[in-house]
Amino acid sequence: MRLRDLIDLPDLQLQPIVTPEHFDPTIRWVVTTDMLDPSRYLSGGELVLTGLMWRAGPEDSRTFVRAVSKAGIAALAASDGGVVPDDLIEACREHGLPLFRVPADIAFATVTESVVRQLSTARASDLSLVLDRHRRLVASAGPGGGLGPLLEMVSSDLGMKCWVVTSSGRVLAGSENPPDTAAVAREFMTSVRLPRYCRTQRVSIFPVDGEATPRVVDWFVAFESDWQTWDVPRTSLAGQLASIVAVERGRVDERVSGSGILAQEFVRSIVGGATPADILAQMHVIGLDTETRYAAIVAATSGETLRLGELRPLLRELLAPLDITLGVVENEAIALVEARTDKTVSVRSAVQSVTPGLIGSGTTIGVSAPTAAADIRSAIEEACYARRLAEGRGADCSVVGHDELATLTILLANVPDDVRRMFTSRLLDPLTEYDDQHNSDLIATLSVYLDTNGAWTRCAEQLHMHVNSVRYRMQRIEELTGRDLSRLEDRIEFYLALRLR
């Protein structure tokens, strides 16, 4: 099918915006995508349909057009409610890429059906029609609702089994008798390049969201075959299937749903100081059972592997298949889950299953004890403290449960943030400023001194210093703060200030 044939299709009413004067490319496939860089799923000659969901600003248009042009697509058809932004038009002109505007009242499914009918003489075209039909099924069904029938049809047509799997090895949809998906998931997270053939399980692994999403929170499609032996149409089909699954994965993002927005506001109000009565009232509104017990799981990241927003799908995966109420406040993702028993062991086990994907992430997780609905705020505070304790361990991913918290720390969980800041600032700011100005270690020395119960020799040994040097530093600390470290009351206050940092 030539480009001019596309223009002549009367039922589509596609409006050409950028058209080459002496160039009439051949269209051999139709792909719908809203990825910023879908090039890895393109093999050339496609008509690409996009609703511009990838566009956050003008520069994104350049990035998208550069990627699809490099992949050798035949043309681009775009529409955001019938509108095509000027920056996208300019980018297409720069790259000589044909561009069409899809009218607001014409569905992408209609465009796909019409084009596929023109290409229906070959088997690959028949498979495109199957994919289009089921793309609409995925788009109209609830999360996960369309994946099962889609994979069954693709599996039947290709004559091989396939599965959609999460980073922890959970099978979301697919054929019967899946392989050892936990082993496949480990290879998915540790492989340098994808797609990859997993020889031990005899499946090929295709990422769903590719380079756009860290693998620890991505899904993948596993095919019971070695992709290196496939022909071009079959490889292209696998990429298209992954793209469709990516759409379904995006729908799981609760941030844009009504329930997700309510959950976010609920968690934010709790952290902001909502009273037990307010908490119970809001739970009734969002449909949470006020008679059961809940645990809080709090996560944060300090590395470059994961961004704050990606902690949402990470917590959902770690706590699956449980329903959770999830929100992000400042630099922490906070999940609430029904818990009649302690969740620490199950969270640790789930983290262990995705550990290869957390290397370098600096992910820290705290888990509270189960508590009554009215005491959820205390549970969140407890989990936050547990997470901060995990942060001090310096591992790629560390989980601390409520059982590791000292009784004193639990009592501190209900101290308001402004009181904590005032208390620690009053005691420790003079020492921090002195350390910064003189490149000294008064804070570190004080911490070791208190941990060794004021034993000069033990403290000096741990710090690899002479005892007199330790005594000098303690004297300097007393001078800067006006405190007396021989007094139990002052020692306790320093201990609390260090734990509250």
From TrEMBL:
Domain PucR C-terminal helix-turn-helix: 442-500
Domain spans labelled Purine catabolism PurC-like: 5-119
Domain CdaR GGDEF-like: 274-388
Pfam families associated with the record: GGDEF_2, HTH_30, PucR
Family assignment from sequence similarity: Belongs to the CdaR family.
Name used for this protein in its record: PucR family transcriptional regulator ligand-binding domain-containing protein
